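Troubleshooting: if your tokenizer reports a length mismatch, compare your output against this known-good record of 206 residues.
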Amino acid sequence: MIKRYNRGDRLTFLGRNPLRQQTQNLVDSSVDPERSSYYLTEFQAKHPDIFSQLDKQGERFSWLITVFASSRFLSEELLQHPDWLLTISNLEGPLSLADYNERLSAFLKEREIASPTALDLALFRRKELVRLVIRDVLCRSTLSEVTQELSNLADAILERALLKVNLDVAARHGAPQTEDAFGVSVPAAFTVLALGKLGGRELNYS
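Known-good structure output:
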């Protein structure tokens, strides 16, 4: 349950911090001041060192409030993974499928994961959604760019999941084979067909 704050009670944990008024203004101007206040309080209590880093980086601190005001789901993720905001880069430009493939490889390498599980891929998606939501809410991207990026992100995850499935099948049963038009045995391919919103490159957040 989110605690309700009166305007005068918000952010009292900042004490006499000279940036308190600036932070208060950011919270009051957000789309959901109460939720922003709640999650800021939680974040500061759980991660004071990272909170202090963000507080000294005005733009990134405003991103934190943007996420807290916009998405309860991602707010909970940031409480679990507070360093995500410190790693955001390239906020201005949309990312291609190749970009997301590269970022996914780096994410798995950093976590020393050779064979990703569904949970690993879901965690990567949530991490990338933080950046996408910030771009979207702050109008750093158009609607078409948002849906294109969400589709590119999904494609990168699907490609990695398909690679894992192929490797698992080959390890368990041997590489799948088929015959070509001349009856010669050749490696079989596995295809994922994207229909609907993903096929049309207009995937949304859900």
